Amino acid sequence: MSTVLAIFLFLISIFLLLARRKSTKKLPPGSLGIPIIGQSLGLLRAMRANTAEKWLEQRIQKYGPISKLSLFGKPTVFLHGHAANKLIFSSDGSTIAAKQTKSIRMILGDRSILELSGDDHQRVRNALMMFLKPESLKQYVGKMEEEIRMHLEMHWQGKQHVTVLPLMKILTFNIICSLLFGVERGARRDKLKDCFQQMIEGMWSVPVNLPFTRYNRSLKASKKVQNMIKQLIHEKRAGLKNEGASPHQDLITCLLSIRNKDGEEVITEKEIVHNVMVVMIAGHDTSSVLITFILRFLANEPPIYEAVLQEQEEIARSKSSGEFLTWEDLAKMKYTWRVALETLRVVPPIFGGFRKTVKDIEFDGYIIPKGWQIFWSSPMTHMDNNIYPNPAKFDPSRFENQASVPPYCFVAFGGGPRMCPGNEFARIETLVTIHYLVTRFTWKLCADNSFSRDPMPVPTRGLPVQIMQMKPL
Question: Are 50 and 453 in contact (CB under 8 A)?
Fold first, then answer.
């Protein structure tokens, strides 16, 4: 009996010791604020006023590099810096999962690549890469170039003034419809565009589903977009079955064509719908913002503009009249792409993102509880003077040797195993568009350099410019 009592007392002491050790591990400093609302409205207001970096810097000054808050209805921990990025982007899903805010998840769906982890994430990512890998995209350069030429003839040729961002959104949406969906110009494309625009407006919003909220309007628009994509899937599945259509027509036919050893589709219809929506947003908003801000920086930086112009004119001179660009031409646009990367560093289209803890994890002496969100922000790394000297200066030479940029310090495309699968698509779209803009037009800004975020960067008045037609080479 005494032996049993001794063992019991020993176990109790061990339990108390472990409990005491756990209790010494504390939550990060900060406040969760008002339930549901938390600090969401404060962050959104700061983003629209283009003071979000200052808003986060004030948190850092008050609480340090890690703090707790509540964003979009969930308790959240804000992290920043190289070590934080490594923790977030290198996770294999066993400690930190890719869970977006409720507003994003409800609008874009729960089977997108943004939400999946482990084997499901790898399966869907591999399927998307069948279309988005460089070897596959080579065959679509000409189709993309046709859309860009047509766009410039319709919206730029013969004009004296244009507003860049709305036009770039039109261009990137048309490229998406052509290459990803095979939807030609017309009423169907116009309807899809209207619903899509309304859908993305509520992605970063407080998830209150009432009739007057942006979130509610976005949910309704999302349902319409999903129904249109489902209709496209049914049509393309029938085309593959009955007409022997090529599996390389567009992204949807490519995904439908991927089969396992038993001849079954690898990607479910729901996964196709949700991931097509994610690719739509990535290819539309991020690319249109990137191209718009490249034009703004080129207008403000004459030496950089001259270097880009020289590189693009050399390529243009090597082509006969009307000849299309080749994959080899794109490979020569090294300086232009460095300008694009520096634009992404200074004005990243994606301000930040979210993850979710799968279990309690410890970071910097604090516990981040299981089920909490982790919020990271691109500018807090991109504008860090310890990583990028004189970070406010626009300097494409930072990317002459990309290996010199420390890992997880340039996160415009994310990082690690969840690196954006569409970065090559964005590179081609950007380079071809800039080639035609700089070799056909010159421009002068008609507004100041300020911008807001909603949640993507939006320059003042959409970046109105005065344009002049260049003489043919």
Answer: yes
58-96 pLDDT per residue, tens: 999 999 989 999 998 899 999 988 889 999 888 877 888
pTM passes above 0.85: yes
Q: What percent of the chain shows pLDDT beyond 70?
A: 93
How high does pLDDT run on average in the chain? 88
Which pLDDT belongs to residue 139?
86
Distances (CA, A) of 180 to 144, 174, 306, 392, 444: 11, 10, 34, 36, 33
Q: Rounded to a whole number, what is the distance in angstroms from the first to the last CA of the chain?
A: 100
Question: What domains are defined for the chain?
Answer: 28-469 (1.10.630.10)
Burial 45-80 (b: 16+ CB within 10 A, else e): ebbeeeebbebbeebeeebebbbbbbbbbbbbbbbb
What is the torsion angle, in degrees rounded to the nearest 10, for the CA atoms of residue 219, residue 225, residue 231 and residue 237?
-110
* Complete edge-to-edge strand list for the sheet that includes strand 441-445: 161-163, 464-469, 441-445
420 labeled part of a ligand binding site: yes
**Whether 199 contacts 285, CB under 8 Å:** no
The answer to whether the peptide bond before residue 207 is cis (omega within 30 degrees of 0) is no
- CA-to-CA dists, residue 78 to 26, 202, 316, angstroms: 15, 22, 47
CB 84 within 8 A of CB 53: no
